[in-house]
């Protein structure tokens, strides 16, 4: 909806919803980090801890950062379109790179351990998510 000044009106509750979404997002990232750090020995690129890179990167990249990329146009609805596009694009690029590290980590871990790939519903849904993420970037 446009106001008389030509600026899009901001729904009154939006800041609260956004604050709540950030609180939830950061809580999920912190809890995943605490789970991996306190109960699963931490993260590393070599050895048994390489697997742990996967959940952390997927949560930061595809849950938190991608979620924030989607919120940019609503939160900064009165900023110049060019500015919001750059921020939106940057968040998506960060999300993509971090998620890629997470996917490479789990495949590399499976390869080093001699485990099979893509044997679970989770892994196939995960591949579908990665493909849809990529396709989404192509149609924009
Ligand atoms: C959007 C988020 C996620 C995506 C796109 C994703 C994607 C994938 C993919 C493609 C694989 C297959 C790797 C292979 O076959 O070598 C995989 C494996 C795995 N992931 Fe995720 N993952 C995500 C989040 C998570 C999270 C948060 C956890 C744990 C809390 C997790 C736990 C696992 C486990 C245990 C495996 C190995 C067993 C299996 O293949 O099912 N993933 N993931």
Give a structural overview.
The chain is mainly α and 140 residues long. The protein is built from 4 helices and no strands. It has helices at 14-39, 53-75, 81-113, 121-139. Helix 1 runs antiparallel to helix 2 (53-75) and helix 2 packs antiparallel against helix 3 (81-113). The longest helix is centred in the last third of the chain and has 33 residues, at 81-113. It is globular and about 55 Å long. Protoporphyrin IX containing FE binds at residues 54-55, 58-59, 62, 103, 106-107, 110, 117-120, 122-123, 126-127, 129-130.
Compact description:
This protein is mainly alpha-helical and 140 residues long. The protein has helices at 14-39, 53-75, 81-113, 121-139.
Low-confidence stretches: none
CATH architecture heading: Up-down Bundle
Structural class: mainly alpha
Radius of gyration: 18 Å
Ligands present: protoporphyrin IX containing FE
What portion of residues is helical? over 70%
| Shape label | globular
- Strand fraction band? under 5%
Supply the CATH class.
Answer: Mainly Alpha
Distance between the termini: 23 Å
Domain count: the total is 1
Membrane topology: Multi-pass membrane protein
Catalytic activity: monodehydro-L-ascorbate radical(out) + L-ascorbate(in) = monodehydro-L-ascorbate radical(in) + L-ascorbate(out)
Transmembrane segments: 16-39, 51-74, 86-107, 119-139
Keywords: Cytoplasmic vesicle, Electron transport, Heme, Iron, Membrane, Metal-binding, Translocase, Transmembrane, Transmembrane helix, Transport
